[in-house]
Design brief:
459 residues, alpha/beta, Rossmann fold, 2 domains, 8-stranded mixed sheet, 5-stranded mixed sheet, 16 helices
């Protein structure tokens, strides 16, 4: 480069990942004008990101014929100029709706930082809604078994947990919600005990108001029940029928006679309530599909789970996946609503170098929690002593030390054991197993779940 010349770098072309930072910068730049325009108590502004990733504003109808409309046009155009191909064309940047609920139409939405009347809205091709966190259930303890990646022994661990809880006298209800890769029921039920129908059948029949026909024939009692009971609801019945054709329809919303629309996750919640009323369980164990999809979203955020077990293998795939999920909760401002329900589980912990493996797992788990879910703990200034400021402790917040065994990032270990590797029949294995062997493999997990359930019972 010749002396005196300054390198010129082009402005970055706006991509999808730059939409949210651009919107936030626009809000901060025009905070005064926005607060002035949204002066009425019931005013609102939606920053709507459509299915194609294009952005426009949605406002109350009162602005459409108002003298303020010109000011909104100017503000909208300034935002669109910064969004490039992700902006709506001129004269289509703003929509007007009668109320916010009508404008949302059930889409994912969350308040943007620092603004009490401005929501980011995402129109998604799926009904997964990671930003809507249902409150915990108050009656039956609901425990979700989840993993970012498959093949981590999640369903086996759930079956063993159900077995042990029943040994301890608990009445256990188990749901196989891994609909695209079903199989949990075969671990808890021999073929002759498989019920006629399953969850998929009910979801299909419910669409046409026929759910009651299959409801009474979709639960079976496991032969592994002892002092307690294990009731199993499989993904499909003994005769799976046209399972693939049914699976392509289970996510459908139900259109009721009064014109209302019930999402598939709401229908699933209704099913769970009906099953709990019928079975009266002490605990509900839910086997979620792995990955970040509609089933996982419903299981983790929309079914009122009290405990969410995050099965983890040591490796970048695991922690990158959980980081993406935690960051989404952080961005949506809902992390505080769900973080205390989370618990990392160390899956298939190897026999060799077990201590070192778990230490690495805990370290990387801690890093992700610190970066995304834990509160920052700042020192508290108490005054000047000898010319220097001194601190009097740490400010309060939701945070844990890395070595804290009571923390959600501290993994409950599920140990690898050759007797559970490559089994042709987990059902047969559990039928002949003893408590000592279960304790050696699944003890930390089972004790953690048991304490969580018993703690709710005595609360």
């Amino acid at each position: 480069m010749r002396k005196g010349l300054v390198a010129q770098f082009p402005e970055p072309i706006p991509t999808f990942d730059l939409i949210l930072p651009t919107v936030r910068n626009w809000l901060q730049t025009h905070t005064g004008s926005l607060n002035d325009l949204l002066s009425n108590e019931d005013d609102w502004l939606l920053v709507n990101r459509d299915l194609n990733g294009r952005v426009r504003l949605i406002l109350p109808e009162r602005f459409e014929e108002s003298e303020l409309c010109g000011r909104w046009d100017l503000l909208a155009s300034r935002l669109m100029q910064c969004l490039g191909k992700h902006a709506y064309p001129q004269k289509t940047e703003i929509l007007f709706e009668a109320n916010r609920e009508q404008a949302l139409q059930g889409a994912t939405s969350y308040l943007l930082d620092g603004f009490t009347k401005v929501w980011m809205v995402d129109r998604l091709a799926t009904e997964a809604n990671w930003a809507r966190i249902e409150a915990e259930t108050e009656n039956v303890s609901r425990v979700v078994f989840f993993s970012i990646k498959g093949g981590v022994g999640r369903s086996t661990a759930l079956a063993a947990t159900a077995w042990r809880l029943a040994q301890d006298g608990k009445r256990v209800l188990v749901l196989d919600l891994d609909l695209e890769s079903p199989g949990l029921s075969s671990a808890l039920l021999p073929s002759e005990r498989q019920p006629m129908y399953g969850i998929t059948d009910w979801l299909i029949e419910d669409l046409v108001g026929n759910g009651d026909v299959v409801f009474e024939s979709m639960v079976a009692t496991s032969n592994l029940s002892h002092d307690g009971e294990i009731h199993v609801v499989p993904a499909h019945g003994a005769d799976h029928g046209e399972y693939i054709a049914k699976l392509g329809r289970v996510w459908m919303p139900k259109l009721n006679e009064d014109g209302t629309r019930e999402t598939w996750s709401s229908r699933l919640s209704r099913l769970l309530q009906n099953l709990e009323e019928r079975i009266q369980p002490d605990v509900l164990l839910i086997d979620s599909r792995s990955g970040i999809d509609e089933i996982a979203s419903a299981c983790i955020t929309e079914l009122g789970a009290n405990l969410i077990l995050l099965f983890s293998l040591e490796g970048e795939q695991t922690w990158n996946g959980y980081r993406m999920l935690f960051e989404q909760w952080q961005r949506a401002g809902v992390a505080q609503q769900i973080r205390e329900r989370l618990q990392v589980v160390g899956a298939i912990v190897p026999e060799l170098d077990r201590v070192e493996y778990l230490a690495g797992l805990r370290e990387h788990s801690y890093e992700v929690f610190v970066d995304t879910l834990y509160d920052e703990i700042a020192p508290i200034e108490v005054g000047e002593v000898d010319g220097a400021w001194r601190v009097g402790g740490l400010s309060e917040g939701w945070n844990f030390d890395e070595a804290d065994e009571t923390s959600p990032h501290h993994p409950w270990a599920v140990n690898w054991h050759r007797s559970f590797a490559g089994l042709l029949s987990l059902q047969g294995r559990l039928a002949a197993i003893d408590s000592q062997e279960v304790e050696s493999v699944f003890g930390a997990l089972i004790n953690g779940v048991s304490n969580a359930v018993d703690g709710r019972d005595t609360a």
